[in-house]
Amino acid sequence: MRFKISFLILFIFTSTQIVGQNLREVPAEIFPSFEKDYLIIRHKNYTIAYSEKHEQAAFVIYKLTKKELYKHEERSNHFIEDPDINTSSANDDDYYQSGYDRGHLAPAADMSFSKTAMEESFFYSNMSPQKPSFNRGIWKRMEEQVRDWAYLKDSLIVITGPVLKDGLEKIGPNKVSVPEYYFKIVLSKTEDGEYEALGLLVENKKSSAPLSQFFVTIDSIEKVTSINFFAGIPIQESFESSYDASYWEIEDIDYVEVTEDEDNDEEEEHKTAHQCEGKTKKGTRCKRNAVENSKYCWQHQ
């Protein structure tokens, strides 16, 4: 194992610049490998592989634990340029009147356990142009489901990114690419010490489809991104070529999608038999599923 990890580090970083120090760094064998010229930025609470060509991260990676879900730092909404990118990252001018949301890759809600983490989540290097109905709809649902899984599994490794390629639409003075697809990958270790992983691949557009419709293998995401995920894990083939849907079981709620002009928290209330009875800050009913033998989800217990 020591040999495999050492080899991986050399493979990833031989021609790649590394900036910063991540206080919650994921294990080396889990870090993705790639051949493209990305800048590795280790923020204190998550790490990104930044693409200067597309002016956004090719992926972000971090660990999300059950314990961190109970801490609720107020959302800052203070978008700033990434201070660790010397060539400057995207900024307000790129998104102004573009018709696109500044979509988080590492969600602010995943970083609500500390003020520093929350502030880092609003770096423009962590943003990607997303259609409003996508960002406030299916993408938000995916983010919430990942937090639910982190609660149920105690901890997860989360990798999120856009599918970057030539020929994408550009916005703003910095020519920020507008991805057509986004992915999420979650990795969990079972009680038996085995790995379970799942990929989600979704188009940058409005959708009311069940989340399970977007389940894909890790191999599928590797093909469209040219990134090798979990290259340092010896048994990666066993969980990258397939996934266990029962391990990632969800009870899909028939969500009411928002329109281009609606706010995230102003969606119409929609009740199901297993829906949490908690209330959001705006007084609408929580859309998470209730924990077994309870009327409330993990956040409202």
UniProtKB/TrEMBL annotation:
Instruction: Give me the segments passing through the membrane.
Output: none
* All copies of domain ENPP1-3/EXOG-like endonuclease/phosphodiesterase, residue ranges: 43-236
Stored PROSITE patterns = NUCLEASE_NON_SPEC
EC numbers for this chain: 3.1.30.-
| Positions of the UniProt region annotated as Disordered | 261-283
Q: Point to the regions of Basic and acidic residues compositional bias.
A: 269-280
Which cofactor does the UniProt annotation name? Mg(2+)
Q: Which InterPro entries match?
A: DNA/RNA_endonuclease_AS, DNA/RNA_non-sp_Endonuclease_sf, Endo_G_ENPP1-like_dom, ENPP1-3/EXOG-like_nuc-like, His-Me_finger_sf, Non-specific_endonuclease
Q: Does the keyword DNA damage apply?
A: no
Q: Which residues bind Mg(2+)?
A: 135
Q: What class of enzyme is it?
A: hydrolase
Record-linked Pfam families: Endonuclease_NS (PF01223)
The UniProt keyword set, sorted, is: Endonuclease, Hydrolase, Magnesium, Metal-binding, Nuclease
Task: Report the residue ranges that make up the DNA/RNA non-specific endonuclease/pyrophosphatase/phosphodiesterase domain in this protein.
Answer: 42-236
Residues of the active site are 104
GO MF annotations for this entry?
Answer: endonuclease activity; hydrolase activity; metal ion binding; nucleic acid binding
What family is reported? Belongs to the DNA/RNA non-specific endonuclease family.
Q: What is the protein's given name?
A: Endonuclease
